[in-house]
Amino acid sequence: MNKNQIRQVIVLSVISCVALFYIExxxxxxxxxxxxxxxxxxxxxxxxxxxxxxxxxxMESLRLNQIDVKGLQLGIGLGILSMIVVITAYVLLxxxxxxxxxxxxxxxxxxxxxxxxxxxxxxxxxxxxxxxxFYFRGFIxxxxxxxxxxxxxxxxxxxxxxxxxxxxxxxxxxxEIMLLALAGLFIVGFIFCWxxxxxxxxxxxWILHICADITVVSIGFYLFWTL
Length: 227
What we know:
Helix content is about 80%, strand content about 0%.
């Protein structure tokens, strides 16, 4: 990508994340509408940008035609490690987390119940993680990185990934825990980006993301079941 296209991606991605924040926290739409909006902004729009503006074939642009199975072992190993880290963090910080508030927010704002949580958990683990990795690592970071804008790719992608999640947990934690979460998400985003330089596509970070989400939704199911 040239400088002008880099600027276009920056503006487009910021607008998309702001729009999702508005949809999530201001409009407070149902989970189905929120998910539909995310698919539009995180999948359809960037795919059109790749095809129309960059004039590239999707599989070649994302380097998904050059998959090395051995290169994915690092993602699997770090994925298992992430599960241990998430569980440990929950155990250490559970007294500072408003579990009842989280469940109430899911029930009232997103209309998620214990019965529908299983389907939501499956989407989060495999669908949502794919959208985020395609968008933040495949469409933003790797396109920047492959164009020679290495540090811009690392910092912008990781920062946007962290700030974007404010729309998800803005009402869940205290201000201090939210800042800690944002710092953690920035570091995680940075690691995800680095991981994908080893495979030259976003599959490694997707595997790691899936493992982390399995742990998170399992904790969520535990909260739903016990509260």
